[in-house]
Design brief:
The chain has about 700 residues and is an alpha+beta fold. The protein folds into three domains: about 425 residues, no CATH class; about 120 residues, no CATH class; about 80 residues, Immunoglobulin-like (Sandwich). The protein contains 24 helices and 17 strands. Helix 16 packs across helix 19. The two termini are about 30 Å apart. The relative contact order is 0.12.
Length: about 700
């Protein structure tokens, strides 16, 4: 055994925590059962409504699924705003293995919710297995998994990345622990591969937190080890090396994301980015013991009083990002563990390790350290300090499991008491998460898209001739129509300029002002969708229809209220020419997000402007011959075309993606060849001996 083994463990003690097949089967059954029990409605006909589900994730998944059905690589999203690089934005998880499978086999909403249910089950199983290697008994490890999974994730159900990313924390910790105990090439390769898979899931905040946790965990194991030698440092140094290699394996995702960041709203002197957003005010820690008293009351949530608590930093936050709850019984067990600090039945090194990790993560979650860390690589890239409570939740879960073992003495006769604690904690955690979550289950939303009159209207319009101004950013993408304003975590900087500062509500003074109408025509907007009638400024708009929409009313929770669809009297054009009289006509020949062919007829030579986002990787051909894009702003793709009938073809062909793919493939192959080649050589030597 490595010298990194904990000081209070030995070979025989380690063997006591070897997991049996029966325990594996029970953990899988419990983890899967709880996931289905919690989200059974999503596996039937329910959909989630609220938070980022319909304004962010579903629109991305619709484009992802359509591209996969066409056997194309979904690199570009052409419906949100004027378009954006879907792969680079990352949260669609284009190369994430389960997405590649589920969105090819199932319809979008079924794939989305099956993915959530499966990841909840896996998170439980991995958390249970990691707890077992922390010298916690089987039954107490089940409680650890329950607290970790259902204490932190359900409140964040509207944020798909939380469970998709969080599932990898206990798994990578388990692999790291096993590597430190029994170093081997295949464990090293496995750790690097799993870490890279986490990065492919997109939304890198939890991946960064995961990497930090592995480094801190390894360092604490080293510090708490009684017998430190050179070999210990050598083994420990392999963990940061695995992290670096995982970055190379996931280059196909990371390099396009880095390219987008360089031209995003997070760069430059006018960068619109607050690393402190989503912190946890220190006083909000009282939610651990008194959340039912007032923190989750409607009055507190609506008044956003959380923003003005003592010790708060100068940033915005919300109860979902700041949520941190272990359950009353697990919290009591944690305190009992502190009281019995010298209890010999509690592994001291494990307890101290997770006490340090838990305290550090809670302190960082308050945002107090941001004045220093916001200048450090990695920390300055991500917002949401409150997300570090995922480590604190795992720490609290493990400490409660250790204390439960000490309390019961691992006696089988007390299993019914452990089960009773688990049942009570299950309902306790459910109540807390439902009180905070900003998404609820609603019967059949996407299944009603065929009944949507708004969708039917736009489906009957020629392709790329309509663009919609609508409240609820990105939601109108589900109609298959481009819409503004847009909602992106990391987006091209131009989307955060004055050109996209648009009013969407009829009661706004500038809703149909001359300035707003000029912006709409500049962006190629042709239609306006509102939830209230436009009683003024109607000289600019023509009412198409006003009635409830089967799809949108469910998403917005509007009951039988009408939705109002208008057309601009002088709409913007997706394709324009300079001079304006030069363009006699145009039609779409091919229309996919990454490949657009247009036949144009020109009365004279002119500059043609396609009102779509110009981004590195877009190229244009005229009649099959490469042409040079004209310099201009990022809001149009411009090219000079001679008089006559021509075919223009714009293609998105990103060299960054292909270079990243080569780096990923070469690195992955090299890592696993270093595992299998020595084994094959050894077999050959034995055969020749």
């Amino acid at each position: 055994m490595s010298a990194l083994a904990s000081p209070d463990s030995s070979d025989s003690r380690f063997a006591d925590f070897t997991v049996t097949l029966l325990e594996w089967m029970m953990a899988v059954a419990v983890g899967s059962g709880l996931s289905v029990l919690m989200w059974h409605g999503l596996l039937q006909d329910n959909d989630l409504v609220g938070g980022d589900t319909w304004t962010y994730f579903i629109p991305q998944k619709l484009v992802l699924a359509d591209s996969l059905v066409r056997n194309e690589l979904p690199l570009w999203h052409d419906l949100t705003g004027l378009g954006y690089p879907l792969l680079a934005e990352s949260q669609a998880g284009v190369f994430y293995p389960s997405n590649q499978i589920l969105y090819r086999l199932l319809d979008v909403n079924r794939a989305y919710y099956v993915s959530i249910v499966v990841h909840y089950a896996l998170a439980f199983i991995f958390a249970w297995r990691f707890a077992r290697c922390q010298q916690i008994s089987h039954w107490s490890s089940l409680l650890v998994a329950l607290v970790f999974v259902y204490g932190w994730f359900p409140a964040r159900i509207s944020l798909e990345w939380s469970i998709i990313g969080g599932v990898w924390l206990p798994l990578t910790l388990w692999i790291t622990h096993e590597f430190l105990l029994r170093p081997s090439r295949w464990r090293f390769a496995l750790l690097a591969t799993v870490l890279s898979t986490h990065l492919l899931a997109g939304h890198f905040t939890l991946a960064f937190i995961n990497q930090l946790c592995l480094v801190f965990y390894t360092g604490l194991r080293l510090l708490l080890c009684r017998d430190i030698d050179r070999r210990s440092f050598g083994v420990a140094s392999a963990i940061p090396a695995a992290i670096v290699i995982s970055l190379a394996i996931s280059a196909v995702q990371l390099l396009p994301s880095m390219e987008l960041k360089q031209v995003s709203q997070r760069e430059g002197v006018r960068a619109e980015f607050s690393p402190g957003y989503g912190y946890m005010p220190p006083l909000y820690l009282t939610q651990l013991v008194a959340s039912w008293v007032w923190w989750h009351s409607p009055e507190i949530l609506e008044s956003r009083q959380i923003q003005h608590l003592p010790g708060s930093i100068d940033s915005d936050t919300n109860p979902v990002e700041a949520h941190f709850y272990l359950g009353l019984v697990p919290l009591a067990l944690v305190f009992m563990g502190f009281v019995s600090w010298r209890c010999r039945t509690i592994p001291a090194s494990v307890q101290r390790c997770w006490l340090v990790l838990g305290v550090v993560s809670v302190v960082y979650a308050t945002g107090w350290l941001l004045p220093v860390t916001r200048h450090l690589p990695g920390f300055s890239y991500f917002m949401g300090p409150g997300r570090y409570t995922i480590v604190a939740t795992l720490a609290g879960a493990i400490l409660s499991g250790l204390a439960l073992d000490a309390l019961t003495g691992r006696r089988r006769g007390l299993i019914p008491a452990v089960l009773l604690i688990g049942v009570f904690t299950w309902y306790d955690l459910q109540w807390a998460s439902h009180s905070v979550a900003d998404a609820v289950e609603v019967p059949g939303v996407l299944s009603h898209q065929e009944d949507s009159w708004i969708r039917e209207y736009f489906q009957n319009q020629p392709p790329r001739t309509c663009r919609l101004l609508a409240s609820g950013p990105n939601v109108a993408n589900i109609y298959g129509v481009s819409c503004v304003p847009q909602y992106l975590g990391i987006g091209p900087a131009v989307y955060f300029s004055d050109d996209f500062d648009l009013e969407t509500q009829p009661d706004a003074p500038d809703f149909a002002s001359r300035a707003q109408m000029h912006k709409l025509r500049r962006l190629g907007v042709t239609h306006v969708l509102t939830t209230d009638p436009v009683t003024e400024f109607n000289a600019s708009l023509i009412l198409i229809d006003a009635k409830p929409d089967a799809l949108l009313n469910r998403i917005w929770g509007r009951g039988r209220a009408s939705c109002y669809l208008y057309e601009l009297r002088q709409p913007g054009q997706r394709l324009e020419s300079k001079p304006a009289t030069a363009l006699a006509g145009w039609s779409i020949l091919q229309d996919t997000p990454e490949d657009v062919s247009i036949e144009v007829t020109l009365r004279e030579a002119a500059e043609l402007n396609l009102n779509e986002l110009m981004y590195p990787g877009w190229t244009v051909q005229i009649d099959g011959q490469s042409a040079e894009e004209l310099p201009g702003d990022d809001l149009t793709r411009s090219v000079r075309v001679d008089e006559g009938i021509h075919i223009l073809r714009w293609q998105f062909d990103s060299s960054t993606v292909y270079f990243g793919a080569w780096v990923s493939c070469i690195t992955l192959m090299s890592v696993w060849m270093s595992v299998f080649l020595p084994v094959q050589r050894l077999k050959n030597r034995k055969q020749s001996a």
